[in-house]
Amino acid sequence: MTQKRLLIYGDVEMDILLKTESAEAGDTDIKVDDLGFSPGGSAANCAAIAGSLGLPVTFLGSLGSDIWKKPLLKDFRRFNVNTRHLKKTTGKTGTCVAIVDAAGERRFHSYRGVNESDPPDLPPQSLWKNHHCLHLSGYSFQQSNSRRTAWTLLREAKRNGLAVSLDPSYLFSKQSSSEMDELLAQLDFIFPNLDEALLLAGEQDPVKAANILRGRGVNTVVVTLGGEGCLLSTHDINQFVKLNPIERVVDTTGAGDAFCGGFLTGWLKGLPLEQACKLGCASAAHIVTRMGAHEHAPTLTDLTQILHQNNEVELVDQLKKLA
Q1: Phi/psi at 186 (nearest 5 deg)?
Q2: What is the per-residue pLDDT across 208-257, written as a single tens digit (0 to 9) for each?
Q3: Which residues neighbour 176 within 8 Å (Cβ) at sequence distance 6 or greater?
Q4: Does domain 6-23+31-112+137-322 bear CATH number 3.40.1190.20?
Q5: pLDDT tens for residues 134-162?
Q6: What are the sequence ranges of the domains in the chain?
Q7: pTM, whole model, 2 decimals?
């Protein structure tokens, strides 16, 4: 049986994590209780999660010439992500300051750097023949340079028979350009959180929002709902999927990206959609109990423990066969 491979395009960056126990969000001078540096970027987070779970992953993106280059490359290799087509260029690597509050919720201040100013070159034709799904980040569609690259990759993916998935960002979801309908019509999967789904669909109910997105051409819509799991919406079903948490939430940074990495790993390894959703939920449940977006990416063993505690015996047995 051919092992399926995931191709990911999007941002890679260094996250500067500021942890505060302060509840006074409006204060002009907030005490920071802890400081950390952690590799991030929505697409890079997804790649690290999938790679850690044993899925072959190739990453397309750009790194600058500053101090973040070496640690970010080392981080990709740690999770077995193929960086052969990662562009190393002159300029500043993407950087994000994430302020994490006492409840684990976060606010981002992002600088995209070379992710926008100098996107990667297009991959050779041979790369398309060896991969089965292209995953895109909504951040790549927010500005002109990376948007052109994302569109070219999407069209090449469809021409070569790959499935295409998208994890939209909040700012991307606020756009109402004429390109949106064309984009949605070409997606096999979209993974909006609840706010993004409502923005994209103009509808306050998650089920109605998902149905509207499918009506605009998306084959499968998965709305992530934080601690409430997710909504899986296809032509046949609208189903809520949830796992119970087993540890305290520390940092929600990267939870949605972890869901995407877990879901796509499960789907590309042949799991049914509902079971792939559970793998996504388990991946997110693991990530939010630790600081950082993917520094502590789960292994299949980690997810098996979460699934065991949720009495997901059938899925645990399936994972053993896939390992």
Answers
A1: -105, 5
A2: 999 999 999 999 999 999 989 999 999 999 999 999 877 888 777 789 99
A3: none
A4: yes
A5: 999 999 999 999 999 999 999 999 999 99
A6: 6-23+31-112+137-322
A7: 0.93
